[in-house]
Write a structure and sequence with these properties.
heterodimer; A: 252 residues; alpha/beta; six-stranded mixed sheet; four-stranded antiparallel sheet; 12 strands; B: 313 residues; mainly alpha; ABC transporter involved in vitamin B12 uptake, BtuC; 13 helices
Chain lengths: 252, 313
């Protein structure tokens, strides 16, 4: 469970988040949606202690993120940010191997090596294991990063716009993998999504942010209504159905 | 990997053996004593510069940076110039080496820590701003030194000028003990940080997500850099591109991202370059060229090559 209590955040005097109070239950996929600049990335960064908490309290699985030692949190919570670049020149296997660092602190054992191979398999990266990350395509690199986050083996995984730079096939494959991680491995996944249709199909719960406040939250079908989405994005949105799927029409 | 280390080790052994024995005449005990001290000095300075550069490149996520860009060399020259102004050229030349070394070390260390200390107040340390700050101070120090040098007596100027280049030929032996202790302590600290540095190289967000205390590790490693740069600059004088040269060579030879490999590798390469270079300068060129200038020339060329080849890193 991720508990966010009365969290406000300012950057250079500009309020980014105001009085965020929300609970993300354990298990399943929670999607954070909302227009640009709504504060989704900042909220995710605060939960993952990438930004220092200014006001309020956040606890992940009962661990206060402001007080718990950072290496302890790294075994409960993993985050992947959207920039997706790696400064060092690494092979894919090395990069994924870094996901095990919180567990071995520089001394990888057989269990860590197994976990890395499993992560490579799970993300179809085994053939790319010896390739250097900077020679990969954007989609492959993104997959390698998510594999590293997966290899960290944490109960909570936060992903900031993981579908950036992915074409529709890779985006679908990634969302299916996330769904599998949530269903089969019981991971709790919080993901910032721009394309509402992915949220509609893959997320169990949706939290809508607008102007630094929670504008909507609840099980996906409750949030996915024409008035809620239209006011959330400030742009007319219609819903349709294709077979059993709800389709969000926001582009025409 | 092991084989490459072995080759580097053998290379250093060979260079050291040549340095100690080539062209030796007379009492062996005396020769080995004299040259052994200078060999140790070269190794200490080389390891300090190499490790400082590798650390700094990792922290800044940039393979063409060296801590020297932040104006330490300029500050060193400014100090020499100010000493010449206040004491006169003769006073500067006759200043006891220990006092001069102590002054240089204290000033450089204070300046480095003050510069790195600007990061303390920031919740998200902005390393690039710090580097730019150092760069600008470097320009200021250089201009001040240039201004003062125009005012002083030409004889004093010649003495300052000779101090403004690294002097690998005449490293004061009595200062070596202190320098060695300080450098070994800093190298030990760098070694203990090696795994965390591997993670730091991924960038801040990844490092935090993987449970490395980014701020703490950054500041700790910068203190190590400050000690290493101050000691080596105070001992031999300013060298700008040497660290860059050996760090790049070590990466080229070892092709590994792990600091457990990079740190000792760069130190070995630095030892080989300095010891072999000094042997060549003394025994082949009979001191007709200076090692500092040759190394800076090679390092400068390499810097240009690095800049032109890969704009991204």
């Amino acid at each position: 469970m991720i508990e966010i209590r009365q969290v406000s955040h300012r950057i250079g005097g500009t309020p980014i988040l105001s009085d965020i109070d929300v609970t993300i239950p354990k298990g399943g996929i929670t999607a954070l949606i909302g227009p640009n600049g709504a504060g989704k990335s900042t909220l995710l960064g605060l939960v993952a202690r990438l930004e220092r908490l200014q006001a309020g309290r956040i606890a992940v699985d009962g661990l206060d993120v402001a007080r718990t030692p950072t290496d302890r949190l790294a075994r409960t919570l993993a985050i992947l940010r959207q920039d997706g670049t790696v400064a060092a020149r690494l092979t894919v296997r090395d990069l994924v191997g870094f996901g095990r660092y919180p567990h071995h602190k520089g001394w990888p054992g057989p269990a860590d090596r197994d976990a890395v191979e499993e992560a490579l398999e799970a993300f179809d990266l085994a053939p790319l294991g010896t390739r250097f990350v900077d020679t990969l395509s954007g989609g492959q690199r993104q997959r390698a990063m998510v594999a590293m986050t997966y290899a960290q083996g944490t109960d909570y995984i936060l992903l900031d716009e993981p579908l950036n730079n992915l074409d529709l096939a890779h985006a679908r494959a990634l969302m299916q993998r996330l769904r599998g991680m949530a269903d089969r491995h019981g991971r709790t996944i919080v993901v910032v999504l721009h394309e509402v249709n992915y949220a509609a199909h893959y997320a169990d719960r949706i939290i809508g942010l607008r102007d630094g406040r929670i504008a909507a939250q609840g099980p996906a079908p409750e949030v996915l209504t024409e008035p809620t989405l239209s006011s959330l994005f400030g742009s007319p949105v219609r819903l349709g159905r294709v077979g059993e799927h709800t389709v969000v029409l926001h582009h025409a | 990997m092991r084989a490459r280390f072995l080759w580097l080790g053998l290379g250093l052994l060979l260079a050291s053996a040549l340095f100690l024995t080539l062209g030796a005449r007379g009492d062996w005990g005396f020769v080995l004593m004299l040259r052994g001290t200078r060999l140790l000095a070269l190794l200490v300075v080389g390891a300090a510069m190499a490790v400082a550069t590798v650390l700094f490149q990792t922290l800044s996520g940039n393979r063409i940076l060296t801590p020297s860009v932040m104006g330490f060399d300029a500050l060193f020259v400014l100090l020499q110039t100010m000493l010449a102004v206040t004491l006169g050229g003769f006073g500067l030349a006759s200043l006891p080496a220990q006092i001069r070394f102590g002054l240089e070390l204290a000033l450089l260390l204070a300046a480095a820590l003050a510069l790195f200390g600007t990061l303390l107040g920031q919740s998200r340390p902005d390393l690039h701003r710090m580097i730019l700050t150092g760069l600008i101070f470097g320009v200021l120090f250089r201009s001040l030194a240039g201004f003062l040098q125009r005012l002083i007596d030409p004889n004093d100027f010649a003495i300052v000028q000779s101090a403004a280049f690294a002097r690998f030929n005449a490293i004061p032996a009595d200062l070596l003990a202190l320098s060695t202790v300080l450098t070994l302590a800093a190298l030990g600290a760098a070694w203990s940080l090696r795994h965390r540095l591997d993670v730091m190289a991924l960038g801040r967000d990844h490092a935090v997500s993987l449970g490395v205390d980014h701020r703490r590790t950054l500041l700790l490693a910068l203190v190590v850099v400050a000690v290493l740069v101050s000691v080596s600059t105070a001992l031999v004088g300013p060298v700008t591109f040497f660290g860059l040269l050996v760090a790049a060579l070590a990466q080229l030879v070892l092709r590994d991202h792990r600091h457990a490999v990079l740190l000792p590798g760069a130190a070995l390469v630095a030892g080989i370059v300095l010891v072999a270079g000094q042997t060549l300068v003394e025994r082949v060129f009979h001191l007709s060229i200076t090692l500092a200038v040759a190394v800076e020339f090679a390092g400068g060329l390499l810097f240009l090559a690095l800049v032109l080849r890969s704009p991204a890193r």
